[in-house]
Amino acid sequence: MADDTSESGDNSISSIFGGIQQGFANEQREIEEIKILVGSLEKTAREILTVLQKVHQQPSKEDVCTKGREMFALAQRQYAELASKIQPEKYFRFYNHWMVVNQQFAFLASFLLYLESETLPTKKDVADLLNVKVTREEGFHLVLYDYLIGLLSLASEVSRFALNCVTAKYYGWPLKISAFLGELDAGFRLLNLKNDFLRKKYDGLKYDLKKVEEVVYDLSIRGYNPNVTTIT
Fold first, then answer.
1. pLDDT of residue 51
2. What is the pLDDT of residue 106?
């Protein structure tokens, strides 16, 4: 009788831990699939960045925006494939695997949208360009934190753009960018940011704003009319 009980207990333990091991194996397969898809997104992000950064080297933004839009079509398909692999309840279990690339794409989408409209892109604007949802309830979505990191990366990029525009004698953009960064800074001041990576990125925004304001001031004392020449 005791032997039967012992054997039954051993079988129960084997069944329990065998099931746990199977769960581990299934999750590892999911992770490997996710890594492959995220790797493809990372490659696309690098290619889009290469295209968008050409705006620093050429006076016209139209060609850059057109090419950027075309390349985002690939990213949209890749995001759709990734989203199809992730059950809504598992989003944050695997979130760390795509967090960095999400932040990079939030920046790239914001940069393209800003070049096109010269206004602050909303979270929905960015999510739509990436072909992801806006809220957690909808499924695979753009996390607010990633959107904000993307905006702060945008601030660094457009401050660099302002300097390069002056070098190319396009004096309209620095004034526009100064106003944009001022509004962005005012918006972030409304947030109660804690002492984390987001706060450190925000400190960079204040430096970017100051740098562009100095450019605008220098142009004004030299008598350049910032509205004479603009990039189209």
1. 95
2. 98
200-222 pLDDT, tens digit per residue, is 999 999 999 999 999 998 888 88
Residue 32 burial (C-beta neighbours within 10 Å; 0-12, 13-18, 19+):
exposed
- Phi and psi for 175 in degrees, rounded to 5? -65, -45
Cβ atoms within 10 A of the Cβ of 227, count? Answer: 10
232: confidence class by pLDDT, cuts 50, 70, 90 = very low
Look at residue 133 and give its three-state secondary structure. strand
Q: Concatenated DSSP letters for 83-106?
A: HHH--GGGHHHHHHHHHHHHHHHH
Is residue 46 predicted with pLDDT exceeding 90? yes
**Which single residue is written with the structure tokens 């699939």?**
33
Listing DSSP states for 150-184 in one string gives HHHHHHHHHHHHHHHHHHTT--HHHHHHHHHHHHH
Cα angle: 170, vertex 152, 132; to 5 degrees: 105
Nearest-angstrom CA–CA distance, 184 and 107: 14
Contacts of 110 (CB under 8 A, 6+ apart): 121, 126, 150, 151, 153, 154
**C-alpha count within 13 angstroms, C-beta hemisphere, residue 207:** 10
Domains of the chain (ranges, CATH numbers): 23-139 (1.20.58.190), 143-226 (1.20.58.200)
Whether 47 has a binding-site annotation, put simply, is no
Q: What pLDDT band is residue 57 in, cutting at 50, 70 and 90?
A: confident
